[in-house]
UniProtKB/TrEMBL annotation:
The active site is at 181 (proton donor/acceptor). The record marks 29, 77, 124, 146 as: Important for substrate binding and specificity. One of its GO terms (cellular component) is cytosol. It holds the Pfam family RNase_T. This is Ribonuclease T. Trims short 3' overhangs of a variety of RNA species, leaving a one or two nucleotide 3' overhang. Responsible for the end-turnover of tRNA: specifically removes the terminal AMP residue from uncharged tRNA (tRNA-C-C-A). Also appears to be involved in tRNA biosynthesis. Its cofactor is Mg(2+). Mg(2+) 2 binds at residues 23, 25, 181, 186. GO terms for molecular function: 3'-5' exonuclease activity; magnesium ion binding; nucleic acid binding; RNA exonuclease activity, producing 5'-phosphomonoesters.
Length: 214
């Protein structure tokens, strides 16, 4: 394999990390006590020329875990009715297991070592994801326990905006505020934003690093 081909492997782009874009809608701000209401995730792939694209998508409405807190201000903001029978909600355990299956398969296919959460204000989503994983007690967690890629920070660097809608518009992506705060829509937009940030860096000549040792 040539040096150029090697740089175009997903495993070499992010130090063997497998990026997984995630958005979680919740019933509050406390990851240990407040209910998870929605989880969406999108995996990413790199084409033969080294451009980053979206790949697999999963989206779940989640049943609040037993004893969880549902703050009225939170559900008024995200407009989610946790008890609507038409939501088709599943348990945290079923959603987490499905995510693990997709991520572990991607890690193996791409010859990566572990998944890394990509999210907008990533600390929030990462904390809720780790708390849910702890609650359902599923082994072989593929995600890094504390490292994340935060598109808010990256967008602040590249386009001077940290709000998701403003960052998307600043970099040339559309954003529908009426669909915001849906886990699926926010994950889609975050994935589009992250891919554009990474690909723009490549177009500007920032990747591959030409003095990188092979």
């Amino acid at each position: 394999m040539s040096t150029t081909q090697s740089f175009n492997l997903l495993s070499n782009r992010f130090r063997t990390f497998y990026p997984v874009v995630i958005d979680i809608e919740t019933a509050g701000f406390n990851a240990n006590t407040d209910a998870v209401l929605e989880i969406a995730m999108i995996t990413l792939k790199m084409d033969n020329l080294g451009w980053l694209h979206k790949e697999n998508t999963l989206h779940f409405h989640i049943k609040p875990f037993k004893g969880s807190i549902i703050n009225s201000d939170a559900i008024a903001f995200n407009k989610i009715d946790p008890f609507n029978p038409l939501r088709g909600a599943v348990s945290e355990k079923k959603a987490i297991q499905s995510i693990f299956d997709i991520v572990n398969k991607g890690i193996q296919t791409e010859r990566c070592t572990r998944g890394i959460v990509v999210a907008h204000n990533a600390n929030f989503d990462h904390n809720f994801l780790m708390a849910a994983i702890h609650r359902v007690n599923i082994k072989n967690n593929p995600f890094h326990p504390f490292v994340t890629f935060d598109t808010a920070a990256l967008s602040g660097l590249v386009v001077g905006q940290t709000v998701l809608a403003k960052a998307c518009k600043a970099i040339g992506l559309s954003f529908d505020n009426n669909q915001a705060h849906s886990a699926l829509y926010d994950t889609l937009q975050t994935a589009n934003l992250f891919c554009e940030l990474v690909n723009r860096w490549k177009r500007l000549g920032g990747w591959p690093i030409h003095n990188m040792k092979t």
